[in-house]
Amino acid sequence: MPPSPEALNIDTLLRVYLVVTAVLAVTSWGGARHLKERGSLRLWAWAFGASALTQAVRQVLLLTDASRAWLTVGHLGGLWSTALLLWGLSLFLGQAAPWRRLLLVGGLASVACPLLAASVGGLWPSLALSTAVAAALSFWAGLKAWGAWRQQGGFPWGLLTFSLMLAAVVYVGRSLDAWPALARGPDPFQHANAIGLLALIALTLLQALSLLLLLQDRAMRRIQQLIEIDVLTGLFNRRGFEDRLRRLLARASAQPPVLAVLDVDHFKRINDSHGHAVGDAVLSGIGARLRATLRPTDVAVRLGGEEFAVIWAQVDPPDPGGDARLGERLREAVAAEPFMTEAGPLHVTVSVGVARAGGTAASPETPAQLFSRADQALYAAKAAGRDRVLTAA
Ligand SMILES: Nc1nc2c(ncn2[C@@H]2O[C@H](COP(=O)(O)OP(=O)(O)OP(=O)(O)O)[C@@H](O)[C@H]2O)c(=O)[nH]1
Predict the structure, then answer these.
(1) Which CATH superfamily is domain 238-391 in?
(2) What pTM was estimated for this model as a whole?
(3) Which residues line ligand 1 (CB under 6 A)?
(4) Would you state the torsion angle of the CA atoms of residues 131, 135, 137, 142, taken in this order, to the nearest 10 degrees?
(5) What is the per-residue pLDDT across 324-344, written as a single tens digit (0 to 9) for each?
(6) Complex ipTM
């Protein structure tokens, strides 16, 4: 026997929806203030707030003898909420927010819903229209989240995509269910409507959780960047380098990585003759040139001062002179053209030591051993007159 409509009373569920979205709005707003987050989180607070506010207005209207057409305000919460969530999502992803289109769609629906209700004399056309628009917006937001999920991966994007797409399906169901021609009598309609509402409450909670996880994920990535990235060049710093080298060496790969250690020749002279700012500009330029010679799988590092390193993660099998050619590419990238600085064009060279990871699959060379061999080759290149590449034995 199907549960009686009392088991899932729509008005009770609407009040639960009001309380849940109000709590989410207040916590998101407080969180946005606390984190000094002006963009997406504030819009998401408004998104939850839109649902709470429209429901609150509906509850107040129920206490008055206002025209039933005004009760359609309760239908608009999901629509405005999804529009604001989508807006915040665009900001979060650094994309241009389609706010004009969102305001237009939301505005038109907000006018059309009470007008429809007044002219038909029932609430169903307003519910059908508002849920259809909310479905489209939720699908649009779901596509955005899906795009980010494909690009960046990660559980929070997956959860958000799932909850937005499922919300779109629920909205479509509610929209179809509102049509009297499709309803199978008042009770099934009430029951399906209530199930839809229950699902929306759960999905709203899921969305809030995934947005929270996304914010946390972004903060973690920022911290990771601060820890691992050299501010001057944008390359990895020594910590990031050690971490990556350790992981690459631990990975049993058909081709062990090749490491180059580079040191700028007579860099002290640049600093002494032209000042630290010019020296910094040269270091930054070297970083850019190194990066430009590499593939995304390779790693470029500023080890500190005027010392750099490169790890080639995927290299050809060893062949005579092959490793030296890799190092030569870096040396040429730096020496080929002068660096344009405020002190004029400066010709800069680097010395390079290259070493290919050795050992066996069962007992690979340690990062310290590999680095030491490359460093010795660099030292030998310096001693041999600089501006050259030497490979480790
Ligand atoms: N502008 C600038 N200079 C730095 C930075 N870090 C280290 N240096 C300078 O880099 C110079 C390194 O000098 P040395 O170690 O003597 O080496 P070099 O002059 O490059 O000589 P060789 O390596 O023997 O060819 C020092 O003057 C440091 O002060 C930095 O972040 N910015």
Answers:
(1) Reverse transcriptase/Diguanylate cyclase domain (3.30.70.270)
(2) 0.73
(3) 263-268, 271, 276, 279-280, 283, 305-306, 382, 386
(4) 150
(5) 999 999 999 999 999 999 999
(6) 0.93
